[in-house]
Specification:
The protein has three domains: 2-112, Orthogonal Bundle (Helix Hairpins); 132-179, SH3 type barrels (Roll); 183-304, Alpha-Beta Plaits (2-Layer Sandwich), CATH 3.30.70. 60% of the residues lie in helices and 16% in strands. The protein has eight helices and nine strands. A five-stranded antiparallel sheet has the order 4-3-2-1-5. A hairpin with a 2-residue loop joins strand 1 and strand 2 (143-150). It is elongated. The relative contact order is 0.06.
Amino acid sequence: MELPQIDEAYKLVSKKLEGWIEGAITLLPNIVVAFLIAIVFGVIAKAAGNVLGKVMRRTFESRQIAGLLTSIIKSLIILAGIFIALDFVGLKGTVTSLLAGAGIVGLAIGFAFQDMTENFIAGVAMGIRKPFEIGDVIEAEGVFGNVKEINLRNTLVETFYGQLEVIPNKILFRNILTNYSSLGYRRLEIPVGISYADDIEQAADVLTEAMNKKDYVIRKEETAVYAESFGDSSINLLLWFWIRYPGEPGFMVVRHDAISTVKKVLDENDILIPFPIRTLDFNAKGGDKLNSMLEARSKDRHGNKNSSSSNETSDVNAKDGSANSAEE
């Protein structure tokens, strides 16, 4: 009774195998073509990667961003070849499943590494937009210095105090960023005060003339001095002039020389830079004048001295009288 069942199972397996073999033989040309398609797309991806790698390295300051974008493009070309090859073989369902799975995995990774993904996308966007380059002087979120390196997730800035600051790319991408190197020049503002007795126009003329003689001053026609406000003991002025930035001499050297020049020029023209002056007025309502207070205090002192002198004289006279009586 068991032998017929074995024969039936054998026949069923044989029939299945024969069907698979026939299907494989039928699909053999398609399989060969699919392999050829995959190989061709692999060669195209490699060639495109070499060409795009050179272009990306010229376009982007960061080699990491250039390498990443090149790898992404190569991977997309290879995946396109694989999907076309699978579709050519007749595995459309497999292609659809792979695409759906890739989308789900991408969403999961995006939610799990949200902060990292945001920094990464910001780094790629900045690499394309290029708000700054390596070597530029930038200021953002309280960090001021030279850009040393641009990575996929962060940017390294060396401050003028010699510290290396690591700034996440999303901060640079979201917030206000000042690039002092993009224009190549910068305006300096030097505040100075002159006394109320001096002429503002004279001070402005001599300062403008002196600064325009400096080699580091550019756009000399825009060098100017403006009156800013009335100070407690001075008229406050602002000296404005343009310099190359970044450039030589450096910012600190220029500012030091400008302040020294302002002091020297004002001294030479007998224009006073006043120090803070305080005037005490005791003549407020219900108070006394200072001179009256001083006179009253002086009289008190003299009165006390005269009374003490008279007391001493009377003591002496008393002593003399007692001595005379004793002699008698």
